Amino acid sequence: MKKYLVIGNPIDHSQSPLIQNYWMKKHGLLDSIYEKRKVEKKDLKKIIEEIRDGKIAGVNVTVPFKKLIIPYLDELDETARDTQSVNTLRKVDNKIIGYNTDTTGFLKTVHDYYNFLTPHHATDVPRRDFFILGAGGVTPSIVTPLQFLVGRSSGSVWVSNRTKENANQLKKLFPKIELVKWGEVPPIFCDIVVNTTSVGLKKDDNINIDFTNSDKKTLFYDLIYNPKETPFLRDARLRGNKTMNGQMMFLNQAKEAFKIWTNVTPEIDDKTIKLLNK
Ligand code: ATR
């Protein structure tokens, strides 16, 4: 039996087993099973040993271990290095490698929406700006693809976080970002406003930022997908803006992880999406 795991704390809410087991069955990988396991920091070393011993074939890592797992790994892929965030593990030639598929997951989702994956390489292109709320563990996985999309246009990735010190830490990792005071908005049209904070996970939790003057062409994007519509997205919809929750990013990161482990590219079809919405 090939065993796969998602580790985190809490972990009950994770929909990864639902999706990964569905794809494993669909692709005839009948000797594979994917489970969730709630772990503490002290368990991380043992998990790595289990991968090394071949007892576990692959692991997804979720909150709060995406950064904490790094010291236990032998190598990181480029994106995991850039973001200092790991969500997928596998063994290659007895080395435990950490990957970050959140970044690709987000980039693919935005690309599918806008069809503008190619960054600007010319200088005479219209500027492209993005606004990120939050500077937590997942934020670097959003800064990286958005900086890629800004490309060489004169635009920026703007970031605002409640705690200034955490925003400053993020700027150390990404010196090109522009910091915005919490509660304020960038002085320019932004293509997308992304919520990477945990505000909205609890019902009626709202971010107290006034977006009433934002352009109707701005997409409001929330990484949260449960609840499906946070107050941040609801308010944007009521203002007439386009909105998107984190479900497609979740599916796209799962798809990339599945590819890393099995070399098979699973399809995100209506049935896959329906599984999550049951
Ligand atoms: P992580 O472990 O990923 O860092 P977290 O501690 O829940 O997760 O924080 C994620 C983000 O949500 C952070 O940017 C955090 O802001 P702070 O740096 O100020 O803590 C943000 N966040 C959490 N609760 C918030 C709230 N009530 N208002 C504004 N931002 C909040």
- What overall geometry do the principal axes of the alpha carbons give? globular
Our estimate of the beta-strand percent is: 15-25%
> What fold name stands as the CATH topology of the largest domain?
Rossmann fold
- What average pLDDT do the residues reach? 93
Number of domains: 2
Structural class: alpha/beta
The gyration radius over C-alpha positions equals 19 Å
Main-sheet strand order equals 2-1-3-5-6-4
Q: What is the name of the CATH class of the largest domain?
A: Alpha Beta
Question: Per CATH, which architecture of the largest domain?
Answer: 3-Layer(aba) Sandwich
Whole-Å distance between the termini?
28 Å
Main sheet? 6 strands, mixed
State the order of secondary-structure elements, H for helix, E for strand. Answer: EHEHEEHEEHEHEHEEEHEHH
CATH superfamily of the largest domain: NAD(P)-binding Rossmann-like Domain
Low-confidence stretches: none
Q: What portion of residues is helical?
A: 25-40%
In total, the number of strands is: 12
Q: Bound compounds, please?
A: 2'-monophosphoadenosine-5'-diphosphate
What do you see in this structure?
There is one protein chain. This protein is α/β, with parallel strands linked by helices and 278 residues long. It folds into two domains: 2-100 and 250-276, Rossmann fold; 104-245, Rossmann fold (3-Layer(aba) Sandwich). Helices cover 33% and strands 19% of the residues. It contains nine helices and twelve strands. The chain has helices at residues 16-26, 44-52, 78-83, 102-114, 140-150, 164-173, 231-239, 247-262, 270-277; strands at 2-8, 32-38, 58-61, 75-76, 88-92, 95-99, 130-133, 157-160, 178-180, 192-195, 219-222, 242-244. A six-stranded mixed sheet has the order 2-1-3-5-6-4. Helix 1 (16-26) crosses helix 8 (247-262). 2'-monophosphoadenosine-5'-diphosphate binds at residues 63-64, 134-138, 161-163, 166, 197-199.
